[in-house]
């Protein structure tokens, strides 16, 4: 077998001679020899495709993260910063109301009025001569000082309270919440309100008062744009009229949050906050001391004693 040598690249030799007229050319001048290749290789060009892909992918990732950040900020603003409804009474005004003197001569009493508004049947309880407190123990129906009580705040499965709560000046729970309505009590006065700030809560802590948060039903006669609770169940609420009187309201049938709020507005309430546990037992006491059941007496006592927060109205 013959070994065939690969054909080698043959250089091209070019001999240049200087013209005779070129100055300083002496005799025997050595000619200039240039060697060139027949197929000079082109200079390599940098490959930038992978860099372009990297920057495109990075830009897309930044855009996605930017969109997520904008969405998260918007949700936080909507749920925790912007209430979305006008506020009729400021926190400072409610603190002044808590500090106002009361007429101790008013006799304790709860009166009830039935009404049906926009197809929502409800009992409306007017309270006078009473002070409010929050208790983790359901009142005894035989306690003659108790004139009305109700569930107030919600709780998790581990019985931790949802939202802020103060009992007797002690902070029981503090947590970010989309519940911007509140109930507060100090000595002989109690108020409801709507606020982002914690001024009223701080006042309750410093003065041995009570405080809890709940959902807004009405704020300055305005219904929130959406509710977090859906479906139909028995509903309860605290409502404030334009004359500053606070009422306890309970529906007789299962209602949606929107229908309940709309009925409260139509009835004439300015502000209203939701009260949970519309199916739980409670009662009110009339001026003659008689006890009248609210809801089914078979639900008394509550199945989770010592874990459920109650708002209790007692004689002053």
Tell me what you see in this structure.
- Strands 3-4-14-13-15-12 form a six-stranded antiparallel beta sheet, covered by helices on one side.
- The chain has helices at 49-81, 91-99, 199-206, 257-267; strands spanning 12-16, 32-36, 109-117, 120-128, 130-135, 146-151, 165-167, 170-173, 181-186, 189-194, 210-214, 216-218, 233-240, 246-255, 271-275, 282-285, 291-294, 310-315.
- The protein has 316 residues and is an alpha+beta fold.
- Strand 13 (233-240) and strand 14 (246-255) form a beta hairpin.
- The relative contact order is 0.17.
- It contains four helices and 18 strands.
- The mean pLDDT is 85.
- It is elongated, with a radius of gyration of 41 Å.
- The chain has one domain (91-315).
Q: Concise description?
A:
With 316 residues, the protein is of the alpha+beta class. It has helices at 49-81, 91-99, 199-206, 257-267, and strands at residues 12-16, 32-36, 109-117, 120-128, 130-135, 146-151, 165-167, 170-173, 181-186, 189-194, 210-214, 216-218, 233-240, 246-255, 271-275, 282-285, 291-294, 310-315.
């Amino acid at each position: 077998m013959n070994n065939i040598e690969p054909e080698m690249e043959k250089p091209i030799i070019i001999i240049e001679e200087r013209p005779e007229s070129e100055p300083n050319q002496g005799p025997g001048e050595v000619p200039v020899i240039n060697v060139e290749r027949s197929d000079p290789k082109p200079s390599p060009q940098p490959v930038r495709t992978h860099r372009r892909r990297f920057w495109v992918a990075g830009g897309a990732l930044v855009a996605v993260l930017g969109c997520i950040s904008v969405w998260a900020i918007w949700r936080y603003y909507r749920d925790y910063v912007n209430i979305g409804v006008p506020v009729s009474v400021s926190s400072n005004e409610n603190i002044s109301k808590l500090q106002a003197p009361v007429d101790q001569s008013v006799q304790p009493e709860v009166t009830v009025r039935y009404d049906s508004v926009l197809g929502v049947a409800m009992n409306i309880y007017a309270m006078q001569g009473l002070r409010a407190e929050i208790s983790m123990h359901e009142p005894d129906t035989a306690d003659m000082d108790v004139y009305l009580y109700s569930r107030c705040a919600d709780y998790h499965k581990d019985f931790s309270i949802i939202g802020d709560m103060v009992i007797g000046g002690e902070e029981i729970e503090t947590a970010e919440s989309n519940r911007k309505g509140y109930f507060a009590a100090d000595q002989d006065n109690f108020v409801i309100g709507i606020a982002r700030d914690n001024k009223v809560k701080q006042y309750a802590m410093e003065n041995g008062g009570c405080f809890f948060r709940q959902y807004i039903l009405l704020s300055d006669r305005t219904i929130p744009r959406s509710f977090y609770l859906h479906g139909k169940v028995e509903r309860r609420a605290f409502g404030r009229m334009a004359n500053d009187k606070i009422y306890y309201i309970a529906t007789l049938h299962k209602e949606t949050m929107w229908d309940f709020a709309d009925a409260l507005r139509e009835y004439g309430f300015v502000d209203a906050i939701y009260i949970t546990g519309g199916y739980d037992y409670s009662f009110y006491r009339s001026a003659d001391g008689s006890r009248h059941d609210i809801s089914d007496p078979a639900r008394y006592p509550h199945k989770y004693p010592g874990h459920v927060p109650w708002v209790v109205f007692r004689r002053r």
